[in-house]
Amino acid sequence: MNIKRFFAGFLLVSLVLAGVVSYYASASPDGLEKVAADKGIDSKEKDHSLKDSPLGDYGVKGVDDARLSGGLAGVIGVGVVLLAGGGLFWVMRRRSPSEDAS
Q: What is the structure's pLDDT at 26?
C-alpha cells in the first residue's frame, strides 16, 4: 500500500469519526461524573473559563444545529491535532545530525 493512500485513508476515517459518528456518542455522564454526583463531590463544581470560547462544550459557537455544531467541532479538533502533530514531526525530521550533537 502506498504511504500517501494510507494517510489519505487515515484522514478520511478520522474526519468521518469526528464529524459524523461523534454525534451519536452518549450524552449521559461517564462513570467518574456519575460517582462524583452520587457522592456529592461535584457540589463545588463551576463552569470552566473556556466555556464561552468558539469551541466550548464540544460545539461551535454560533451554530444552532447540535449535529452540525458537534460535527464541526470534531472536524476542527482533528484538523488542529493533525496539524500540530504533523508540524512537530516536520520540525523534528528537519534536524540534521550535527544539530543533535550540540
A: 72
Q: Is 67 left (phi over 0), alpha (psi -120 to 50) or beta?
A: alpha
Residue 56, phi then psi, degrees to nearest 5: -65, 145
CB 55 within 8 A of CB 77: yes
Mean pLDDT of 75-102: 81
User: How far are the Cα atoms of 29, 58, 60 from residue 26, in angstroms, in the given order?
Assistant: 8, 13, 18
User: CB burial class (10 A; 0-12, 13-18, 19+) of residue 18?
Assistant: buried
Question: Residues 8-55: pLDDT tens digits?
Answer: 999 999 999 988 887 777 777 688 888 988 999 888 888 888 888 888
**Cα–Cα dist 40/52, whole Å:** 26
Under 8 Å between Cβ of 23 and 67: yes
